[in-house]
Amino acid sequence: MYKGHFGKAQAERLLWRAGFGPKPGQASRLARLGMRGAVLSLTRPHSRRLVGPAPVLENGQPIAPYDAWGNDVLWWLDRMVRTNSPLIERMTLIWHDWFATSNETVNSQRLMIAQNQTQRKLCLGSFPRMLKAMTTDPAMLMWLSGAGSTKEAPNENYAREMQELFTLGVDNGYTEHDVREHARALTGWTNTWNNATGQAENFRFEPKLHDDGVKVIYGQRGRFGWTDSISLVLSHRNHPGHFVTRLWSYFCPEPLPASHQRAAEHLYLSSGRQIRPVVEAMLMHPLIHSGPRMVKPPIVQIAGMLRAIGRHIDTDAWVWESSLVGQTPFYPPNVAGWEADRWLNTGTWLARFNLTAQMIDDSRKITAPKVKPAKPARVKPSALTRRALAFWGNPTIGQATIRALNSYAKSAAVDAASADWEREQYPLLAEGALRALVTASPDYQTS
Amino acid sequence: MGTQNPSAACACHDFNRTEALRRSAARPGQGLPAIEPGMPTPAGTGLSRRGFLLGSAGLALSVYGAGRILDPSRFEEGIALAAEASNQPVIVSVYLQGGIDAMSVLYPAGDPLYGKYRPVLGLSAEAGPAFTEDPRLHWHPKAAALAQLHGEGKVGVMPAVGYTDPDQSHFTSRHYWEVGATQADLRSGWLGRYLDIAGTADNPLQGLCLDESLQPALATTRVPVATIEKPSSYAFWARDVWGPPQEIMYDYFDSLGRIGAGARDAEMAKAGNAALMSSTLRRQLLPFQSEGSSGSPAGYPSSTDDFPSRMASIAQLLGAGLPLQCVSVSTQSVFDTHESQVKPLETGLEEVSQTLLAFQRDLERRGLADRVLTLVWSEFGRRAQENASAGTDHGAAGCAFVIGTRSAGRMIGEWPGLAGGLDELGNIRATADFRGLYCSIIEQWLGHEAAPIIPGAAGFARPVVVR
C-alpha cells in the first residue's frame, strides 16, 4: 500500500489512471480524502449520476445512439465526460478492451450498447459472472461466431479467444485439442434474422444444435456444455495469473513485483474471483502513485480535455477525432483490443496535437480585449503560459516543460513582434499556440 | 466509421496483441521487447504477445535508446546524403491481413477433390482465368489484375508457402513471418535486421511503414525507421494561430520532444520521441502537402480505405527521390473469413489486385519499376475444408507473390494437390519456405548475405526470385 504524500498531483494522476482526468477543482477535493479514501470513493461511488446537459449534435438535436452513425460513440463519450463515478466508466472501457467486440462486424449499435451496459453493470463484480455474460452476449455471439456454431460444425473462434485472450493468455496451458473441444462444448447458440430489418435477434440456446457428446478438456472428460466450458477455464491454474497481469496492465506500465502479483492472485481467488477487491488493492499500490508514468489512452485524453474545459458533447466531430487519435469506442481494431503500447506514433501524435483546435469552439476562442489600450501593453511570457495552463484546468506540468513554454511565449509574442499590430496580435496567437503546446507536451500526454 | 472497411469479415484476428503490449514497457533502441519473464512458455510456441510490441512511436523506438538524443538536423542531412545515392533496390512488403484463403485466390478447379472440400465456396473452372503455370489452378475472377501482371511475366507466384509445424494463431504465425524465423523470442524484424546492417544511423526513411503504427518486419535494433499514414495529410494546426507564432510553434515540437526523450521515465520518453519524430517527419513531408487529395489517386481503384492511396504514396515518395529502401504496408481489408466469405473476399481481393496493378503501372510510368520489388504475403492460408458458415478456418500454407519488372516471374514451389497435399489437420502443406524466400530476396535483390539476417539461412533452399 502506498504510504507517501497524497496531494493534488497524486489525486490528479489517480483520476487519469482510474477515470478520465479531473474536472476543475476535483483533484484538490479528492486529495483531501487521503489516498485510501480517494481510492474507495472511486471504487464504491455513492451515486452514478451524469452531471450536466445531455449530449446534442451541432444542430441542437439530441443524439440517437442506436440509430445514427457515430452517435453510439458520442453516447459513451458523454458518459465519460459527465460521470460522477469515473471508475465505473473506466472499468467499462477496460472490459470493452478485454472482451473487445467491434461494431464493424456486429453491425448493430443497439447490441453493442446492450453489451456495454452489461459490462458497466458487472464492471466491479464477479469475473465468472462477467465471463458468462460475455459468452452469451448477443454482440459477442455475432462477433466471435458463437451464434451458429453447431454440433455439425463447431466454430473455434470463441473457444480460442476465450482462452487466448479472455482467461489464460496465448499458449498458456492449453492445446489445439482443447480449443476444438471447448468449441464443441460451446455449440448450441443461435439467433434468427429479421427479414424486415436485416438485424439479428432472438439469441438463444437450442439444445438440438448442441453437441452433447463426451469432450476431453485439460485432460478432464465429460459431456461438457457452455457453463462447464467456463468453469473449466476459470479453474485452470493459469487463469488467476493472467487475470491479475492483464488487469494490472491497464493501470500501470510496470509489472507488479512477483510477490505482489502472487498476493493479488490470492486475493482474487479468496474473494471468490471478485473484481472490486483486486482493483482496490491495485489502485492503492505504490507503483500507481509513485511509479512510472503512463501514456493516456486516446479516448481518455479526449474525455479528459473536455472535462477540463467544461465542454459537453455538442458535436459529432469527436467520432472522427477518436478514429484519428487511434481509439474509437465500439470499434476496437480486433478481438485483442487496442494496442496500448502503441498509442503514440507520428500519426497519432499529429492527431493529438490537432485535437486542441477542435476543443476550442467559438466561445473558447482567444479574443482581443474589447477596449483597445492606447499602446500595446508589455507582454509577460510567463503570464501567457499561465493562461494557457489555466485553460486546461492547471494540469501538473514539469519545470523543464514550463521553461520551454515560456521560451516559446517570449520568442513568438515578444521577439517576433516588431510592428505595432504584431505586438498587439502575436500575444493572442502565441496564447493559442501555447494551449496546443501544453497538451502536446510529454507531461500532458502521460499521467 | 470513416476508416473502417466493409470487407472486414470476422473478428478472431489476434495479430496485434494488446495485452502483451500493454504489459510491456518499450525498451527504446532494443527492438522488440522480450517475452515477459513471468510467463510460462510451454514447449512449442510459447510466444508472449509482448514479442509483438513495436513501440508506440514505432519509429522513435529504435533510435533513441542507443543513448543518443535525436538531432533532427542530422536526419535531414542523412536523408539528403542518402537521396543523392538513391539507386538502391527497394523492397515493398504488402501484408494481407488475417490469413487470406489461398485456395480461393488460386483455386484448384482442376483438382478432383476441390468440389468435395469446397461444396459451397467452390468456383467453376470457367469463372476465372487459368493459371498458366499449373493447369489445375485458376485465378479468382477478382484477382484478374494480378493474372494480367502474371501474364506479363512480372509475378512470381507461391501457391503454397509456409513452414514446417505451422501455427494457427494469427499472432504467432504473423510474428514468424515478420521476424523471418519460427522463433518466438526474436525481437527484430527481418527487414529491420537487414537495415541494421545495410542502413545508416541518420535516415529514418530507409525503413518506412505507411500505417498507423510500425509493422514488426521493420523493427530494427540500431538504426531509425519511420511510419506515416499518408504523406499528404501530415498537417498540424492550432486554432487562430498563423504567421511567425505558428512557425515558431513548430520549432518547439523539438524542444518539448527533447524534454520527454531525455527523461528517465520510459513513457515520457515515448511521448517525447513521438514528438521529435513527428516534427522531423513534418519537415520532410512539407513538399507533399500540396499534393494532398481526397479519394484514390488516378489509376488506383476507388476505395473506402487507405490502401490504394498508401501504395500511391510509396510511388510518389520514390518518385520524389526520397531514400526509401524497405517499405511496408498492410491491407485494410481483413481476410480472416470465418463466415460468409464470398463477398468480403471478393471486395478485398479486387481492391488489392487492382491496387497492385496500378502501383506497378505507376512505377513503370515514373521509370522506377526496375528498382522496386513488391512482396505480397499473409500469415497463413485457410483450411482446405470450408466450414458450415460458408467460411474457412485458419489453415497452414498460404499464397505469396513477388511482383515487379525484375521479378523472375516464375512459380516458386507448387500446388501440392488436395490428395496427399494436406496435413493431419486438413491444412495445405507448404511446398516452399518463407525463410528461403527471404534469403533469396536479401541475396538476389538487396545484394546482401542472408546468413547474418535470417536465422538458419544455410538450411533453406533459395528459389530464384529475381531475373
Please describe the structure with a list of short key phrases separated by commas or semicolons:
heterodimer; A: mainly alpha; 2 domains; two-stranded antiparallel sheet; 53% helix; B: 467 residues; alpha/beta; eight-stranded mixed sheet; disordered N terminus
H-E order of chain B: HHHEHEHEHEHHEEHHHEHEEEH
3D shape of chain B: globular
**Proportion in β-strands of chain A:** under 5%
Helix content of chain B: 25-40%
Could you describe the largest sheet of chain A, including whether it forms a barrel? Answer: 2 strands, antiparallel
Residue-averaged pLDDT of chain B: 80
- Structural class of chain B, by secondary structure, is alpha/beta
Poorly predicted sequence stretches spanning 5 or more consecutive residues of chain B: 1-73, 290-294
CATH hierarchy class name of chain B = Alpha Beta
| Largest interface in this structure | A-B, 101 and 99 residues
Instruction: Please list the strands of the largest sheet of chain A in the order they lie side by side.
Output: 1-2
| Envelope shape of chain A | elongated
The overall pLDDT of chain A, averaged over residues, is: 95
| Sequence of secondary-structure elements of chain A | HHHHHHHHHHHEEEEHHHHHHHHHHHH
| N/C terminus separation of chain A | 20 Å
Number of strands of chain A: 4
Percent of residues in helices of chain A:
40-55%
Tell me the radius of gyration of chain B: 22 Å
